[in-house]
Amino acid sequence: MSVKVVGRESARLEATIEFSAFASRPMPLLHLLDEAPRRIATILAADVCSLYLLEGAQDDGGSLVMRGNVGFTKSALGHVRLAVGEGIVGEAVEYMRPVVADLAPKHASYKPFDELDEERFPVFLAVPLRGRSGPVGVAVVQRKENPFDANDVELLVLLGALIAAGIRTAELIDAHRNKMNGEPRRAGGGTRKVTLTGRPALPGLALGAIAALRRPASRPSERNVGTQPSDGDARLLRGAFDVAEKAIRALASRAQEIELGAQAGFLGTYIEILGDARFRERSLELASRAGGIPQALALVAREVTRAAHQVTRDPFMEERARDIEDLCDALSMLAVVDRRAEMPQKAVLVGDALTVFDVLVTSRAHPVAIALTERSSGPRTRALLELIAVPSVVDVPGLFRWASDGDVALVDADHGLFVINPSKSEIATVRKRGKTS
């Protein structure tokens, strides 16, 4: 009987052996999502490889979200989503079987995405990724031509199992940490690593301490209680108006430069409000007799809100009242700093919504990243994120259940991940990329 050591003649075999060694090592999820598709595409001579993770409420079937890819635009990550059973990808999970198509657009279950222009790669193979108690996602490969054969299907099933095992290893590490720390982590601080998912808004990686977005207190600070108005208050408020108007005009110019178009149209409303002589006069009048600038601006905001409520169901008036209230908060902070509303420097900001206040005031603390809950929506949020210009993730469910001031967070806005208390290897990955970018 002859014995033969298989040499390195087969590039596919070598790439498969290398993938086996790669997948057997613990690694940050963001590294797995980047490297695994690249390696699988090489092994299977595919033009495209995508990794979809199963996320969301299992009672509703969850959603399959593209988190890793090579071959398509990076902007697809976190945005391309399918329900279980939807499209060829969803069908693979529904039946927990590989699905292969020589001409995917002709397949009855085919679901195209305009941003992908998938028709360029009609040869399609989707394989479900099996976890401990069910599917964890799907691995997909696509080609321009040359149908996938039985050997390709079998190989991708095995490669997919290695990926699923890598995801499972991360889950086991987190579970072990949880046992070591006793009670499950609750909001308010802890050491358990938690990975939340969302939609990438602005790409990039960032690391920092979490700080919740905040506004000036509705109750006057002790410094202002009982104080008498002075000419200095009026001077400070005038200066705040000038600073705010100059800043908003600069933002409008910036929005034009980066072609935000109608998304940034609301900035014109703020310029109009700041240029309203009656608004300025009323603010300065109250500042001269209301016991301080914060109190004066709070009164102005309440007056505008009352006036808006008197106009029955007028969306324009209600939105304008909210804009004026937001602007009054910003003017108050620009004129007299409320320490309780100040943000720490270089923090990861978390919140339900973003407003012009954050562009005028909060951004002065130079945040490194932003994460917003699923309550944030609309073109205004997108425009404000573009103007602040830091890595950002939106639509993060459960954000305030886990995130607390002072916790360390890794924002992976390339894949749409928000990692609380990241591992040392994840921190090292971010720092390494920062040095090479």
Record keyword descriptors for this entry:
437 residues, alpha+beta, Beta-Lactamase, Glucose Oxidase, domain 1, Enzyme I, Chain A, domain 2, 3 domains, 8-stranded mixed beta sheet, 6-stranded antiparallel beta sheet, 13 helices
Topology:
Elements: H1 11-23, H2 29-43, E1 48-55, E2 63-70, E3 81-83, H3 87-95, E4 99-101, E5 123-130, E6 135-143, H4 150-181, E7 194-197, E8 199-202, E9 205-212, H5 231-257, H6 266-274, H7 277-287, H8 293-310, H9 315-335, E10 348-351, H10 356-360, E11 369-372, H11 379-388, E12 392-394, H12 399-402, E13 408-412, E14 417-420, H13 424-436
Parallel strand pairs: 9-10, 10-11, 11-12
Antiparallel strand pairs: 1-2, 1-6, 2-3, 4-5, 5-6, 7-14, 8-12, 9-13, 13-14
Helix pairs in contact: 1-2, 1-4, 2-4, 5-6, 5-7, 5-9, 7-8, 8-9
Task: Give an overview of the whole structure.
It is built from 13 helices and 14 strands. It is of the alpha+beta class and 437 residues long. The protein folds into three domains: 11-181, Beta-Lactamase (2-Layer Sandwich); 194-214 and 343-436, Glucose Oxidase, domain 1, CATH 3.50.30.10; 231-340, Orthogonal Bundle (Enzyme I, Chain A, domain 2). The protein is elongated and about 105 Å long.
Short description:
The chain has helices at residues 11-23, 29-43, 87-95, 150-181, 231-257, 266-274, 277-287, 293-310, 315-335, 356-360, 379-388, 399-402, 424-436, and strands at 48-55, 63-70, 81-83, 99-101, 123-130, 135-143, 194-197, 199-202, 205-212, 348-351, 369-372, 392-394, 408-412, 417-420. The protein is α+β, with helices and mostly antiparallel strands and 437 residues long. It starts with 10 loop residues before the first helix and ends with a helix.
